[in-house]
Amino acid sequence: MRTTNPLALCLTVAIVGLVQTLSAQQSRGPAPGPVPAQIAAAQKVFISNAGGESLETVIDQTVFNGGPDRPYNEFYAAMKSWGRFDIVSSPADADLVLEISWALTDTGLRLPVLGQLRLVVVDPKTHVTLWNITEYVRGALLLGNRDKNFDQAMNTVVARLKALTLPPSPSADAAQK
Predict the structure, then answer these.
(1) Sheet-wide strand order for 114-122
(2) Residues 15-28: tens digit of each pLDDT
(3) Could you give the CA distance from residue 79 to residue 86 in angstroms, rounded to a whole number?
């Protein structure tokens, strides 16, 4: 029967623990940068339809239902139902401008298989972009599946904006100091 040296066993356990600790610290990466204060403090927003390419048809085939204003209409409805912000009718009255746009990506196939929704958060006083959220829409052969993929991407954009507007947690503040 073979006996294990207790010193070697302790040394092995210590080395494994150290390697795991170091790799965990490295995999975390740098602490997240701060979110501009205007985003969390905003009470009133203006929603801008930055447009984009038509969602109606490409090569005589419907890409998505809802027409070219679908991104704006869906985003506006999501913001209204969330109730976090007062939606104002003029950028001059807003704390933030939320600019939603859409672009198709042509892959050379008969139908585009990918598009992107883009939300740009702008400070209306300085016209500086404070944040940018881009979400890709997966393509699909069937119109119903493309519509579902579009809705899923829009839900992700809204969820990311919601997460962005949360006040920073005390542990995040401590980690940045």
Answers:
(1) 86-87, 44-52, 96-105, 114-122, 129-138
(2) 545 555 555 555 57
(3) 9
User: CA-to-CA distance for 99 and 122, rounded, in angstroms?
Assistant: 8
Alpha-helical segments (H) within the chain? 6-28, 37-41, 70-82, 143-165, 170-176
DSSP annotation of 91: G
Rounded to a whole number of angstroms, the CA Rg of the chain reads 24
If one compares 154 and 61, the residue with the highest pLDDT of the two is: 154
Q: What is the pLDDT of residues 30-52, one digit of tens each?
A: 888 899 999 999 999 999 999 87
For residue 3, the cross-strand partners are: none
What three-state secondary structure class fits 37?
helix
Q: Say whether 57 sits in a helix, a strand or coil.
A: strand
From residue 144, how far is each of 20, 63, 65, 72 by CA, in Å? 46, 10, 9, 20
Q: Could you tell me the two tokens for 28?
A: 């975390």
- If one counts every other C-beta atom within 10 angstroms of the C-beta of residue 170, the result is 8
Measured between its terminal Cα atoms, the distance across the chain in Å is 55
Above 70 in pLDDT, residue 58? no
